């Protein structure tokens, strides 16, 4: 069973919830940190990294001797990653989405593909929790290929928790694809509510069953609960706004050390989700993988194709 | 020598458009015949991304040797430079005034992009 922990707004407590849920789940559990621009689960879990693997994407390279500067490649590229100058194509790898189309349309075979490294996937253990995290190289703009690489390395069996990046754009969609349930973490602030609405729209569009966790809940503040009531969304858990929690967090400790009572509530949350999900019947995995012939795969860093 | 000037209007008296990639149109001026052509940039004006690069392609394929504009982002600058085109940024006034200043040697060639890219 795959459970994603997502949110519209950043800083609502996705990592906090993902880490502490991983500590509470009784079965074999893997925590996938898909917030690859800023993976933070390791700060709280301190996993031993046993394996680190470079992840690359395919980009075109031009052989100037065979190029006629016809501009076919640049006209084909929907992402404008190739400037078709009269002196020949100029490639902007950071804009390339690795579709391989330019190579196919080139009439003289002047274009070929090479691998460009975008980050690493690190795998290890924190006690009995398997931790797999992606780390996007600084200055890289596109994280979905790395997120898909992290997910591909997750175990097939047991419980998989996916700590998503914030927001509702492509990286989050890449992290959410194929999960059985999404926990949307929010906070009772105007921004929290605003971005929760966006996140709800997102998971509904993806047909992923979901529930809400309110972090930093305050007595008397009903902004989130009123919204959830109107929308018939279940609130799975409320974590109180508490100084002890903030202190534990800023020391890199589990929230369970500050609020031991949270353990039973997280356990209840987990069992609650389990009853709502029949594994494998959630949203279908839709990776839209571009299949390549084996001889098209270069040696070196493994490559993630683009959906 | 062929010169591209980014322009708001369709004549040499038109005020320059200070944007390069999202310029309303380009005026391609032939220094020898003193004729000019108008190249519309409608497609790039509304492009979600890649306007600067596509504009650089237009300039390159028009056979221009230099570009007079207000601002030029990093990708367009890189592409224009790769195509061997000289770039003059910080130019304003009308299209004709800009060309006159270039001919009088009053413009200084840009050595780098002068505005931030915004590809994403």
Describe the protein.
The complex is a heterodimer of chains A (307) and B (120). Chain A is α/β, with parallel strands linked by helices and 307 residues long. Chain A has two domains: 2-55 and 120-276, 3-Layer(aba) Sandwich (Rossmann fold), CATH 3.40.50.300; 64-109, Alpha-Beta Plaits (2-Layer Sandwich). Chain A has helices at residues 14-24, 41-45, 72-76, 101-105, 144-152, 170-176, 190-205, 223-231, 243-250, 255-258, 262-276; strands at 2-6, 29-33, 48-62, 82-85, 88-91, 111-126, 129-136, 159-163, 181-186, 210-217, 235-240, 302-303. In chain A, the strands form two sheets. In chain A, strands 11-10-9-1-8-2-7-6-3-12 form a ten-stranded mixed beta sheet, with helices on both faces. In chain A, strands 4-5 form a two-stranded antiparallel ribbon. In chain A, strand 10, helix 8 (223-231) and strand 11 (235-240) form a beta-alpha-beta unit. Chain A starts with a strand and ends with a strand. Chain B is of the alpha/beta class. Chain B has one domain (2-63, 73-103): 2-Layer Sandwich (Nucleotidyltransferase, domain 5), CATH 3.30.420.130. Chain B has four helices and five strands; from the N terminus they run E-E-E-H-H-E-H-E-H. Chain B has a five-stranded mixed beta sheet with strand order 3-2-1-4-5, sandwiched between helices. In chain B, a hairpin with a 5-residue loop joins strand 2 (25-30) and strand 3 (36-40). In chain B, helix 2 packs parallel to helix 3 (74-82). The chains are: A alpha/beta (307), B alpha/beta (120). At the A-B interface, strand 4 of A face helix 2 and helix 3 of B.
């Amino acid at each position: 069973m795959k459970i994603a922990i997502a949110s519209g707004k950043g800083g609502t407590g996705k990592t906090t919830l993902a880490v502490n849920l991983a500590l509470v789940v009784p079965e074999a559990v893997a925590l996938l940190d898909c917030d690859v621009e800023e993976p933070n689960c390791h700060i709280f879990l301190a996993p031993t990294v046993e394996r680190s693997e470079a992840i690359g994407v395919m980009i075109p390279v031009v052989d100037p001797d065979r190029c006629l500067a016809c501009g076919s490649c640049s006209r084909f590229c929907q992402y404008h990653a190739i400037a078709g100058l009269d002196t020949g194509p100029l490639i902007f790898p950071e804009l390339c989405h690795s579709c391989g189309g330019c190579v196919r349309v080139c009439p003289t075979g002047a274009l070929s593909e090479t691998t460009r490294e975008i980050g690493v996937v690190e795998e290890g253990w924190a006690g009995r929790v398997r931790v797999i995290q992606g780390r996007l190289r600084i200055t890289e703009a596109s994280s979905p290929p790395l997120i898909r690489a992290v997910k591909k390395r997750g175990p097939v069996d047991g419980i998989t928790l996916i700590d998503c990046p914030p927001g509702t754009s492509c990286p989050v969609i890449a992290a959410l694809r194929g999960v059985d349930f999404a926990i949307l973490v929010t906070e009772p602030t105007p921004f929290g509510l605003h971005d929760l609405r966006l996140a709800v729209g997102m998971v509904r569009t993806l047909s992923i069953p979901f529930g809400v966790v309110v972090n930093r809940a305050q007595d008397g503040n009903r902004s989130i609960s009123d919204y959830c009531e109107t929308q018939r969304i279940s609130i799975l858990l409320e974590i109180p706004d508490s100084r002890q929690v903030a202190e534990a967090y800023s020391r890199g400790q589990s929230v369970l050390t500050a609020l031991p009572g949270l353990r039973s509530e997280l356990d209840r949350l987990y069992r609650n989700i389990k009853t709502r999900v029949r594994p494998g019947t959630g949203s279908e995995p839709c990776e839209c993988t571009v299949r390549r012939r084996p001889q098209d795969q270069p040696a070196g860093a493994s490559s993630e194709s683009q959906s | 020598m062929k010169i591209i000037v980014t322009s708001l209007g369709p004549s040499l008296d038109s005020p320059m458009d200070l944007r390069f990639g999202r310029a309303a149109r380009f005026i391609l001026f032939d220094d020898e015949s003193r004729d000019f052509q108008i190249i519309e940039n409608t497609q790039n004006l509304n492009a979600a991304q890649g306007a600067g690069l596509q504009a650089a392609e237009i300039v390159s394929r028009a056979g221009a040797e230099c570009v007079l504009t207000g601002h030029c982002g990093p990708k367009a600058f890189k592409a224009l430079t790769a195509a061997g085109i000289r770039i003059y940024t910080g130019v304003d006034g009308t299209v004709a005034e800009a060309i006159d200043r270039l001919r009088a040697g009053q413009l200084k060639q840009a050595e780098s992009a002068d505005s931030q890219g915004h590809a994403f």
